[in-house]
Design brief:
Elements (H helix, E strand, L loop, with lengths): L4 E6 L19 E2 L2 E2 H11 L4 E6 L3 H11 L10 E6 L5 H10 L7 E5 L2 E3 L3 H10 L4 E11 L4 E4 L5 E5 L4 E13 L1 H6 L8 H12 L4 E5 L4 E3 L3 H10 L4
Parallel strand pairs: 1-4, 1-6, 4-5, 8-12
Antiparallel strand pairs: 2-3, 6-11, 7-13, 8-11, 9-10
Amino acid sequence: MNIREAIVLAGGLGTRLRSAVPDLPKCMAPVNGKPFIAYVIDYFRAQGIEKFIFSLGYMHEVIRQYLDTQYAYPEHEPATAFSYSIEDQPLGTGGAIRLACRLATETTTLVLNGDTLFKVQPSQMAAFHHAHGADCTLALKPMTDFDRYGVVTLGNEGRVTHFKEKQFYHEGLINGGVYALDPARLLAARLPEQFSFEKDWLEQGLLEGNRKIYGIVQDDYFIDIGIPADYERAQAELLPV
């Protein structure tokens, strides 16, 4: 079992990275000669993703021009379908995902961040997601000695029990920003046009007890280039194929 479709969130302003990359969307920040988002696409193509839905906003023309040019493969190359969901105004992570879900054609879709590379195993996530009948399955990354992320705690069979706020933790599981999600369930929910996927869908759904939210640990390579220090680390760790 695998997931063949992914929504890539790439509409953010990237304000924390502005000092290092002043004139580009965050996902287009160059890493060893190519935009960071190319590393994300290439990894997930290799994992069986055949259709990418790009959720865009800020400077969307720059991103789309690059993708349409760079990934216009000859006929003999593996087929990859790209489509675009454009925010006319910022909708929050939840609103952006829901808008993109209208273009989804699969029962289960992977949701990714265009400024983060988390080398999860989509086939494992899909099997886990369907085995538990989850509304959403989070890929969780084990970390030590950190304060940039909140922590997710799990109960029986990997069901999420708590989302803990950002503070210093000696160790814990963080939400790696990769989700297995059934688009029809999100589209059917009564939510405002603009909302936070993390706060209003995941955390509120957990509090109200009306959503089955699970987490699967994926102890694989993870980098989020949202701050200059990690952007510089990407230059040392990511090499073009």
